[in-house]
């Protein structure tokens, strides 16, 4: 098993996981629905940091539409977080060569 050190590999994996965790904590995405009627800001851990709702949407009184817009914006923000994670993981896993 020349050149293969499991302990070193595990150490590298742990370091990369820590880097990814920090990156996700710092990642912030924003997504909107209804042409900007509802905007959601979410961090890389999928914690909602804020929701902005255009006051005109509330005046319309269409609660079901507003609920749908909030849900759509949150789902889009979560999709963007997943995309960021996938992008980050792709770069990090590339350094591990063909082991995985």
Overview of this protein structure:
By secondary structure, this protein is an alpha+beta fold. The chain has a domain at 24-83: Ybab, Chain: A (2-Layer Sandwich). It is 57% helix and 18% strand. The protein contains 3 helices and 3 strands, in the order αβββαα. The protein has helices spanning 6-26, 55-59, 63-93, and strands at 28-33, 38-43, 48-53. α1 (6-26) packs antiparallel against α3. The protein is rod-shaped and about 65 Å long.
Q: Quick summary of this structure?
A:
With 100 residues, this protein is of the alpha+beta class. It is 57% helix and 18% strand. Helix 1 (6-26) packs antiparallel against helix 3.
Helix-strand blueprint:
Layout: H1 6-26, E1 28-33, E2 38-43, E3 48-53, H2 55-59, H3 63-93
Helix pairs in contact: 1-3
Which terms summarize this structure?
three-stranded antiparallel beta sheet, 18% strand, Ybab, Chain: A, 100 residues, alpha+beta
Radius of gyration, in Å, reads 20 Å
End-to-end separation = 17 Å
Content-based structural category: alpha+beta
> What percentage of amino acids are in beta strands?
15-25%
Q: Going across the major beta sheet, what is the strand order? A: 1-2-3
> Order of helices and strands, N to C?
HEEEHH
Poorly predicted ranges (pLDDT <50, ≥5 residues)? none
From the spread of the alpha carbons, the general shape counts as rod-shaped
Average pLDDT, rounded to a whole number, is 86
Total count of helical runs of at least 4 residues: 3
How would a crystallographer describe the biggest sheet?
A: 3 strands, antiparallel
Helix fraction, binned, reads 55-70%
**How many E strands?**
3
